[in-house]
Amino acid sequence: MLRTKNLRREYGSTVAINDVDIEIETGEFASIVGPSGCGKTTLLRMLAGHLEPTSGEITLDGADIVNTRPKDRPTSLVFQTWALFPHMTVRENVEFPIRAAGREVGRTVEELLEQVRLDPDEHADKNASELSGGQKQRVALARSLAYDPDILLLDEPLASLDYALQKQLQRELADLNKALDMTFIYVTHSLEAALVMSDKLFVLNCGNVAQTGPPEEIYQSPESRFIADFMGDANIFGVETARTDGGDATISSDQFTGEAAIGADHDYDEQNHLIVRYDDCEVGPTLDSDLGIEVTVDNILVRGNTVLVEGTPDATDEQYVAEVGFEWYQETDLDIGDVAYIQWDAEKSVLVPE
Ligand code: ADP
Ligand code: MG
Predict the structure, then answer these.
(1) Which one of 20, 40, 42 would you pick to mutate in the ligand 1 pocket, going by the greatest count of ligand atoms within 8 A of its CB?
(2) Is the model's pLDDT at 251 over the cut of 90?
(3) Is the terminal CB of the chain with fewer CB neighbours within 10 Å at N or C?
């Protein structure tokens, strides 16, 4: 298990990583996600040994590795730009860093290329400059695997590829992680990528881990407004709450109609927000669910087998959204300009602090 404790990195007065504790099991596909500038690269470079922590611990299976040099760590880092030597062949690119480090290539170049789905007969002796972007990425990945690391660290490695290729390589990376039984730690600002590949997510906010868990858990049960915002596809309301018995809170708001008791497991004195996912909302001319907001429908977007209904209430220019089934939509006469309720049952919503 790879573990950090109170890991911290300052740049002058900037705290890039603020006393972070993470735990990653051997073989896990863990992603570190968060908006640009939140400290992802800083954290990854400390794990790789390329950047010295200001304070804190990094342990691997209980052994302190903070002072271990990068080449002596069982880690291999894949960069955002896959810097290959253009005049060297694919084979030379894969072997070069290993030889330069005075190490033996543990697996044959052929085997490594096959692992990253490049046909060695066709590509091993080509110049790197003859490859497409996606093929270059595969070679760089093969080069990182040539070290035979226990932990592969990837910093936004797909950022420069087109969308279809990103999707394909995401699936391949997830497969490779399982096939090699190697720990992968993947850094990205793209939540979509992280959701597809990961066993576990760490969502960073300004140098702090805002929430940790399996992707579906974070998606369904955000613990703060920040997380709900970052995960997207959710309506967020400010609410007033009042304590009732049994830990439930009675909530109401000047932003929506209705009142309901919902479970809440944190301090009600905190600033509270009610989160409801788009696909947990329905639309109708009257309020039939526990809670709802009257809007004028200003957009209807067909998204395949679901439909996004976007509407704005009278008093604000804030837009709210319901994601409804295509079949339901086909059977209604809902149209742009209609006044309707975007509505949901209280149990579908989550109460969170800022
Ligand atoms: P991310 O990878 O999530 O975009 P970074 O780890 O690159 O974030 O940066 C985190 C914070 O640290 C940012 O505020 C960034 O400006 C700052 N930072 C990163 N590298 C340096 C550096 N070499 N010197 C000064 N500040 C830095
Ligand atoms: Mg970065």
Answers:
(1) 42
(2) no
(3) C
